[in-house]
Design a protein that fits this description.
single chain, 797 residues, mainly beta, 2 helices, 39% strand
């Protein structure tokens, strides 16, 4: 057994822009000793990508849960109706996974869809007509909180053997580019809900149905509804009556655009025809252009619930006890943080909303929102934690409702303190899952299962306050990493993630948390100080921007918060939510830092900065197109702003100048990444969403290297790296659908998929380390991966 010291320098940080954690509150150090087995894995076969995790990350943004485990966003869940240990989940971009030991302390998961053409899962359901419970259908859809990024929308995946094998169902291509938000499989009849599509027209969205096993699909929701009873429009959810497989429910908004009426609709013939069952009061809440989400749940006693989100916040929960014949309002759950605060303090109800009916009590329902509010947040401060129910972090926001209670007292909190807030609310140990709830269900023994942007969690004894929240994340690897860096001194990987902070590798696939919240761009200088590496990271909006110092054994040494003091009379940076930074490739003391108003340069690790590019707005929406220092020239600087590339080869105050010959100019194709040849600063490679472009003379002229890349269907080209070899280099790009490479021998124009075993997922960032000859990728849904011997695999040696 090997004892590992995991150093966590920042015990907490904000997870939302409105957070007000002070720097003083971030200076404490916590050292936690973990005893983990040191297992030597066999070396991978050449060209094999190897998963690095996180699986899971510890010290994540939960409360009262052992190890504080998080992984990444799980959008949907299906629990086996008879075996409590068997659960299937669909990750936002990480595919379908299965466990058969969910009731144990050490949950183990099996990935089921890595080999499929898309791993962006928007819906997942058992087929109730299969008595063996081995038939499931997954709907492909993009539901990432990171600008809805995702893989190709290819239709449905169906398994009849519990997930061992899958078949793609696309209706002869008609489901391509449709975002599937709900599925109801019934043998050869499958009904789906589509909430958006490309092109996003009424004729491409709504309810669709097949009766021939997916060979063809027919749009059921169309026109004003006279044909089938269901008008055209947006359908955010599709739910089934657990006791009547033929009975389905959905909601429709934007029906008024085609002469129909918005409302809640029921089908009693498996989606062939529909009847509007909502009341005028409910219909008045379904406002086209305002209603962003409607999630529904059906109980075991003909009881139906609908949660309606308007303007990003929960506007109403309505209930019917008779299958939709009559309805009553249950209001909305609230706590008092100085003023009433609802289920969506973050205003993210359009994507973060869950609801489930209690399986035994017809009057109880559970609702999940986005995150906990600070005390005084609804009224403008001064803000503080803990809040009125004892939450001390921006963790999960969940409630239990009881329709038998008087109006105004129907809801209690399902997290945190049992002695604060409404009587009967809370937990035994002040526990709470991660924020941003997505779906809830019940397992076969009555525990509440909830998925969110941190993974999957279980709530025991959900009908009272004697239970607690527990992690079921186990060894799931579904983290969305949008930026990644490799520290060659300690041979570890770290990165910025969607909603699970700034984690770093410390023992195999288990990672630790440096900063919580939404992770920012990262960088590392592992060559300037002998025996010490300097890592740079931040939260959203460059919050808590820091440099930390580490030794070769990955031990934390120290840290500093760079002051970013502007010299020379320049304007202060207007920070991006996601702020690209670049460590100089020649002089590790130098940084380039993007902002929404300019490009800034530091010669002293961020203590002071100068405005090196006034008015230039580097792209910062999930991209980091800044390359800084190469070929013995620390002043070399390339910056992507919009569809243009700016270049500077001399020291500041020499200006950044737009390349007049860059072929992307005027195309509206956003520059996504830039890399320089480390031995020649005049040679730069650029990606701009759909292509690869090179200059060998510092931007004076350019050559397109896209070659056959688009024929391989990479979708968006996100990132680029140059793999250097003794007998030739290779260019590598990360795309929406994996990693591709082209060799110098081919003129960097003949492209092939790189390596094996990497799932087909969006690759947002690449980092190549020549000293270790390792290529690292950050994926939006399957964590980080390594390809060792990268120059050999790509033919450079």
């Amino acid at each position: 057994m090997k004892t590992v010291s995991a150093v966590r320098p920042f015990p907490a940080a904000e997870r939302r822009p409105e957070s007000l954690w002070s720097k003083a509150g971030l200076l404490g150090l916590a050292v936690v000793l973990w005893t983990l087995p040191a297992v030597a894995a066999p070396p991978p076969a050449p060209g094999t990508w190897v998963a690095q995790g996180p699986g899971p990350t510890i010290f994540g943004q939960v409360e009262g849960i052992e190890n504080f485990e998080v992984v990444g966003a799980i959008h949907t869940v299906a629990a086996h109706p008879q075996a409590a240990g068997t659960i299937y989940v669909g990750a936002v971009n990480g595919g379908v996974w299965k466990t058969t030991n969910a009731t144990s302390q050490n949950v183990k998961w099996t990935r089921l869809t890595d080999g499929q053409a898309s791993n962006s899962i928007g819906a997942l359901a058992f087929d109730p007509t299969d008595p063996g419970h081995k038939t499931l259908v997954a709907g492909i859809g993009r539901f990432s909180s990171f600008a809805a990024t995702g893989g190709a929308r290819i239709g449905l995946l169906k398994t009849t053997d519990g997930g061992d094998t899958w078949t793609v169902l696309d209706g002869g291509g008609i489901l391509f580019n449709k975002n599937i938000a709900g599925v109801a499989p019934r043998g050869n009849t499958i009904v789906i809900a589509v909430n958006t599509a490309t092109p996003n027209t009424i004729g491409n969205i709504g309810i669709w149905r097949t009766t021939n096993g997916g060979a063809t699909f027919t749009q059921i929701s169309n026109g004003n509804g006279t044909a089938t009873g269901l008008p055209g429009g947006i359908t955010n959810d599709l739910v089934s009556d657990p006791n009547n497989p033929s009975r389905l429910y959905t909601s429709v908004t934007f029906a008024d655009l085609v002469g129909g009426q918005n409302g809640i609709f029921r089908s009693d013939d498996t989606g062939a025809t529909w009847t509007r069952v909502s009341t005028p009061a409910i219909d008045a809440l379904l406002i086209s252009g305002t209603t962003g989400n409607v999630e529904m749940a059906v109980g075991q006693h003909n009881n139906v619930y609908a949660a309606i989100v308007n303007g990003g916040r929960l506007a109403a929960v309505v209930r019917s006890g008779d299958g939709g014949a009559t309805w009553t309002s249950m209001g909305v759950p609230l706590t008092n943080e100085g003023a009433p605060s609802g289920a969506h303090p973050g205003g993210q109800g359009n994507i973060h909303l869950s609801i489930v009916a209690d399986p035994t009590d017809a009057n109880i329902v559970y609702v999940g929102g986005d995150r906990q509010p600070l005390f005084n947040e609804p009224i403008g401060g001064p803000f503080s934690f803990p809040n009125s129910i004892g939450a001390a972090n921006f963790t999960g926001r969940l409630f239990r409702g009881d329709a038998t209670k008087p109006a105004g007292s129907q809801w209690v909190h399902l997290t945190n303190s049992s002695s604060l807030g409404a009587a009967g609310g809370g937990t035994a140990s002040n526990s709470s899952p991660h924020a941003d709830s997505r779906e809830m269900t019940f397992d076969a023994r009555g525990d509440l299962i909830e998925t969110d942007d941190g993974g999957i969690y279980k709530r025991t004894s959900p009908r009272d306050n004697t239970g607690d929240w527990f992690s079921l994340n186990g060894d799931l690897q579904t983290t969305e990493i949008h930026n990644v860096a490799y520290d060659s001194l300690s041979n570890i990987t770290f990165g910025g993630t969607q909603d699970t902070g700034l984690p770093y590798q410390f023992q195999g696939v288990t990672w630790d948390t440096l900063l919580q919240g939404d992770g920012g761009d990262v960088g590392v200088d592992d060559f300037t100080i002998p025996g010490t590496s300097v890592r740079y990271s931040s939260n959203q909006n460059l919050g808590n921007f820091n440099r930390t110092f580490w030794d070769g054994a990955n031990n934390f040494i120290g840290f500093a918060f760079p002051a970013l003091t502007v010299l020379g009379g320049g304007a202060n940076p207007v920070r991006h939510f996601y702020t690209p930074i670049a460590v100089n490739g020649v002089d590790g003391n130098r940084l380039a830092i993007s902002a929404n108003n300019s490009l800034y340069e530091s010669l002293d690790r961020g203590d002071t900065i100068v405005e090196a590019g006034p008015g230039i707005r580097p792209n910062g929406t999930g991209t980091d197109p800044v390359a800084y220092g190469a070929g013995g020239n620390p002043n070399a600087l390339y910056v992507g702003a919009g569809d243009r590339v700016f270049v500077r080869m001399a020291a500041y105050p020499a200006p950044l100048v737009a390349s007049a010959t860059f072929p992307g100019n005027g195309t509206a194709l956003v520059v996504t990444d830039i890399t320089m040849d480390p031995s020649d600063a005049n040679s730069a490679f650029v990606t701009n969403q759909s292509g690869v472009i090179r200059s060998t003379n510092a931007g004076a002229s350019w050559t397109t290297l896209t070659g056959n890349l688009l024929a391989l269907n990479p979708s968006t080209v996100r990132s680029i790296a140059l793999v250097t070899g003794a007998s030739g280099d290779a260019l590598v790009v990360g795309t929406q659908n994996g990693v591709y490479y082209a060799t110098e021998a081919s003129g960097f124009a003949t492209w092939s998929r790189l390596g094996t075993a990497l799932p087909v997922v969006p690759v947002y960032d690449l980092d190549y380390d020549a000293a270790d000859d390792v290529l690292v990728v950050g994926t939006m849904g399957r964590g980080a991966w390594h390809l060792t011997g990268a120059s050999v695999v790509t033919g450079g040696l």
